[in-house]
Every structure is written in C-alpha cells, then in structure tokens.
C-alpha cells in the first residue's frame, strides 16, 4: 500500500545494500544531507537497530562472545529487529510523507543468511515478508565491491572485526554473488560500482532518484 501511495505522493523509501565497508553509510548520509538541504522531510535509519529494542538486538548480533550463534538464530534476530523498526519508525514516517533512507533492509538477510548462510531462500522470503509487513523499498542501491576491496579497506581502517565480519572468504564470496543475483532479479535495484570516487557515486545516486 505504501509503495502504491508513494507513486502518487512522491514519497520514497530508499535502501542501501552491499557487503561490509562497501560505502553504504557514507552514501546514505550524503543523500540524507542532500535532501535536508533541499528542505525535504527525510529520516535515516540503520539495520540492525534504529529503535530502542532493535539496538539491543543489534548488540546481541554483533557481540563476538556469541560465536556459537546459528544462522537461523541470526536470521530470526535480524527479522525481529526489522519488524520493530518497520512498524515503529519506517511506516509512520512514510505515511507522513517523509523520505526514508535505510542503511540495509531485508535484502541483507537474503544475501547474508540466505546466500551466505545457506538458509532456504523460500523460507527467507516468507519471513522477510512477515518482518516488513510486506513493505518493499521504492529504490534500492547495491554498492558492489569485491572481497579484495573489502580487505583493502579493512587494512586501511585497521578495523577490528565484529562477529559477522570474522567469517571467511568463501562466505563473503557467496554473499557478494548473492547480492548480484538479487539485484539482477529485481528492477527496483540499481547496481553501483563501489570503487568509484565517493562524490561520483553520490551524483549517480541523486540522478537515479530524481529520474524515478
Ligand atoms: N567510493 C569509495 N571509495 C573509497 N573508499 C570509500 C568509498 N566509499 C566509502 N569509502 C570508505 O570505506 C570505508 C567504509 O565506508 P562505510 O562505512 O560507508 O561502509 P559501509 O558499507 O557502511 O560499511 P559497514 O557495512 O561496515 O557499515 C570508510 O572508510 C569510507 O570512507
Ligand atoms: Mg555502515
């Protein structure tokens, strides 16, 4: 319903997807600042998190002490956090005519727990529908980088890894290929080359939004 409404009211639900360090938060923030400057009503939220309950779930998900967490547990925790964020923040803002920018949404579960964790994609799709009340983004950006680029950025940032980032190369390869497969199947996706300069990517994103 919100997606239908958005076509008439020009409200927009925009998500950023891609593996760790691909540049999602950088671009989400730049877009937020751009829309703010244009005096648009806009909010930015991140996944997992974005509400009091969801942030608590985020801490469980990223805690290195939870090394024994199973993929299904992980998936259901992400989904629980997502439902709370969707109902408490995203839907009410879309209803009030806001642009909502979301740094990761359900496609992350399809890519990480589905393609990466090898949970049956049909189960992932069903739970995703429940966890979002069937709310589909109007536009999703996949910022695509290779595993090598991810490693390069990690080295540069001297970033310590959280629980999910500690996983090995074979897992990341599955996630990267999974994201590409998801984007190929769905017209709402625009795939961006994440190795391009930050400002070039921002220009591309703005162009694509206003074209839509
Ligand atoms: N186009 C780009 N080219 C080179 N470096 C970039 C680019 N975009 C972002 N970066 C850098 O890569 C690092 C990660 O960026 P960012 O935090 O936006 O990624 P992310 O996808 O949100 O990561 P995470 O999934 O870990 O939250 C930062 O140091 C950022 O400055
Ligand atoms: Mg980020």
Architecture overview:
- The protein has helices at residues 2-9, 24-37, 52-62, 71-95, 106-116, 121-132, 147-157, 169-185, 198-211, and strands at residues 13-17, 42-46, 99-103, 139-144, 189-193.
- By secondary structure, the protein is an alpha/beta fold.
- The chain has one domain (2-211): 3-Layer(aba) Sandwich (Rossmann fold), CATH 3.40.50.
- Strands 2-3-1-4-5 form a five-stranded parallel sheet, with helices on both faces.
- Helix 4 runs parallel beside helix 6 (121-132).
- The two termini are 18 Å apart.
- The structure holds adenosine-5'-triphosphate and magnesium ion (MG).
Distance between the termini: 18 Å
- Helix vs. strand class: alpha/beta
Rounded mean pLDDT score: 92
Strand content: 5-15%
SSE map:
Layout: H1 2-9, E1 13-17, H2 24-37, E2 42-46, H3 52-62, H4 71-95, E3 99-103, H5 106-116, H6 121-132, E4 139-144, H7 147-157, H8 169-185, E5 189-193, H9 198-211
Parallel strand pairs: 1-3, 1-4, 2-3, 4-5
The structure holds adenosine-5'-triphosphate and magnesium ion (MG).
Features of the shown structure:
5 strands, alpha/beta, binds magnesium ion, 9 helices, five-stranded parallel beta sheet, Rossmann fold
Summarize the model shown.
The protein is of the alpha/beta class and 212 residues long. It has helices spanning 2-9, 24-37, 52-62, 71-95, 106-116, 121-132, 147-157, 169-185, 198-211, and strands at residues 13-17, 42-46, 99-103, 139-144, 189-193.
């Amino acid at each position: 319903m919100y997606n239908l409404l958005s076509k008439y009211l020009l409200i927009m639900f925009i998500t950023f997807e891609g593996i760790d360090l691909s540049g999602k938060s950088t671009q989400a923030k730049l877009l937020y600042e751009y829309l703010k400057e244009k005096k648009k009503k806009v909010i930015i939220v991140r996944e997992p998190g974005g509400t009091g309950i969801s942030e608590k779930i985020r801490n469980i998900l990223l805690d290195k002490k939870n090394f024994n967490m199973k993929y299904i547990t992980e998936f259901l925790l992400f989904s629980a956090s997502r439902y709370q964020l969707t109902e408490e923040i995203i839907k009410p803002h879309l209803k009030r005519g806001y642009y909502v920018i979301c740094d990761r949404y359900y496609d992350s579960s399809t890519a990480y727990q589905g393609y990466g964790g090898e949970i049956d994609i049909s189960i992932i799709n069903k739970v995703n529908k429940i966890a979002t009340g069937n709310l589909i983004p109007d536009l999703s950006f996949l910022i695509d980088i290779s595993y090598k680029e991810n490693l390069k950025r990690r080295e540069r940032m001297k970033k310590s890894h959280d629980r999910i980032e500690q996983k090995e190369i074979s897992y990341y390869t599955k996630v990267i290929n999974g994201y590409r497969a998801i984007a190929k199947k769905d017209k709402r996706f625009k795939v961006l080359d994440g190795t391009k300069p930050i400002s070039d990517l921002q220009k591309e994103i703005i162009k694509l939004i206003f074209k839509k």
